[in-house]
Design a protein that fits this description.
The chain is an alpha+beta fold. It contains 13 helices and 14 strands. InterPro entries: PInositol-4-P-4/5-kinase_C_sf, PInositol-4-P-4/5-kinase_core, PInositol-4-P-5-kinase_N, PInositol-4/5-P-5/4-kinase.
Length: about 375
Amino acid sequence: MGRQEAIARSIVLALVNGTQKRARSAWAWILALFSAFFSLYQLHFEKIRPTDFANLRRHHWDVADDAYLDSFRPEGGKKPEESLKATGDMGFSGSTFYATADQKYLVKSVPRHSEHSFFRDDLLTPYVEHMAAQPRSLLVRISDFLESPRLSLGKMLRLAPSHHIVMENIMYGQNEAKARGDVDWEQWDLKPTSYFYPERDIADGRLTSEATKSQLADEFPDKIILSKAQADQLFSSLENDTALLAKYNAVDYSLFLVRIETESGEAGRVADPDQQSPTGQSVIPQDPPAVPPEPPSWRTGVPSSDGKHVYRAAVLDFFWAKHKLQPIFMTFLINAWNLLIHRHGPMSITTTPEEYRQRFLKMCRGYVEVRD
């Protein structure tokens, strides 16, 4: 079994069998611990705060337990690892991504200690309370958090991630759209680009490969066309969400934007789950994995006011906190660079939380055009 398959298998077993307890003899426990220590890729995972996440799913997002677990259960005699499909190693953090077979959920590794410890120890309780109180929050909905508590060679040698989050897939429904022959969905990972990015700004980027620079934040080349009511609701949600993140010292989060092109004047129909395409198929999924609020919403699709597009959006990657050890060290390095070599200003990961929040909100407002 390869690395990706072994990691996927350990994730699925933890999610599907996480609540099952088996009586074991002392000898069986010793063998299990011995096997876990010598595991390189298939680690033993346990759920962090499972009751809190189950409460969010059941009572606030209207996701039944069986429906949730069905996304991870192998079908037709398949192996557990076949329930997840690897989508590659992404980003500078080296995170691994998996998608469920039904495309409803993504599993993302959180390999950096500063990030998973921040989410577990600092942000998790405020996040759970915020998501319960704010149904229109744009913070990505995290449905489970896994950690590997046992000592193993795989963890020590960093061969396999020790923490994973399970979250909603904002791209849910794209595969069905492709199968119908619809236009491809466009996506952007948006952050303020006015910060200092060494990969881009040192020697005009000549010292870094194009592949590395392509992983930097995107720029949206157009405008998000909304009515005033839609824009007000969007900015209200972003104001609330970013206030929470700034309060707990998070920076470097991004707005993940999806744009679906439609025939002129048809955006309202596409964003309505009760409407159908000319082929008789539902134009957006009838059972998105995380509702309410009912469609149209930024999770299922908000129609542009000019009728040409449908938009989805979520705030992602809010695990980088200024008070953790690695961010403190990075801030020291960038401050030294600015003092001794060249004044570039802060990076998005070394600025203050409130300053990042203001630039982030300004970026979002700059991309929106109100057109009633």
